[in-house]
Design goal:
Order of helices and strands: EEEHHHHHEHEHEHEEEHEHEEEEEH
Shape: globular
Number of helices: 11
CATH class of the largest domain: Alpha Beta
Structural class: alpha/beta
CATH superfamily of the largest domain: Translation initiation factor eif-2b, domain 2
Largest sheet: 7 strands, mixed
Helix content: 40-55%
Strand content: 15-25%
Number of domains: 2
Amino acid sequence: MKKLINPFFRWENGTFITIDQTRLPFYESILKLYYPDEYFDAIKKLKVRGAPAIGIVAAYGVLSTVYRYKKFTKAKTESLKTIELLKTARPTAVNIFNILEELKKLIENFDSNDYNHFKDSIENFCKKRLEYEVYTCEKISIYGSELIKNGMNILTHCNTGMLATPGIGTALGIIFKAFIMGKRFHLFIPETRPLLQGSRLTVYEAEKLKLPYTLVTDNMRGFLFSKNMIDITFVGADRIALNGDTANKIGTYESAILSYVHKKPFFVVAPTTTFDKKLSSGKGIKVEERKTDEIISILNKRISIAKNTFNPAFDITPSKYITGIITEKGIIKPKSECIKKILK
């Protein structure tokens, strides 16, 4: 079976190289990140996005800072500053906070003054975390692809493929895996307003892999369900509370409700790095609100004269509407006892 290799994320001697997702699908513009403010800008402005991806890129942002300073004391001080800066880039996705907290502990507790040893330790940490995210995507895709049967119509939301993770992807990774296994199905891709991650990014990846798909506007999902045109839904996650409540791209909640009403399975797909061990429920998840321009403009072209807008980037799906959560440790029920068991 052909194995997909992610071409979008790589580290080369002090510089992280990726692709500027804000310019896709029309321009494949290479993005080279070196300074902390470049990493911050890339994450804040969604040049890099996807919960697993921004966690890994942030970690390499810290490593990049270590590369810049050749003395241990300065490298340690500046790397800790970079961690605090990158924590402020985006508030909802938990992966970035989890990985930066691990790095902070490693740096603060480092018991040597040897710069090269320090640099190698941080680099080894980043390499292992990236490899783990690749591994989680592969395991997730194997578990989830078993749920896809020939002839199914599948719904997804936003973008959860190789642009959003260092591996094959989460929700979209499952769909990719099923396709390269030879299963035949049809994928419906909502556009994902206001930034069109579905129509710009998921379609871009579907075209690359020659997936059978249909692009629809977000407000067509109800019609699809009413006509029995959706059999199963897979979505990603930016943060999952201990009770299974899930934050994901705005519009996910609507797909969950439609699935629930029409008695169709609705699966959240995420690695264990996306769970928040400190949150008992989704009520504590901070939802990022973004700028007006994202609603009144499309690709920098004004489409509205509106002066007042509301632009939450995520919504919270209560666990009762979720059929299951697909992780690298298996498919679990969205219940506290099941989640705590896999997080041990």
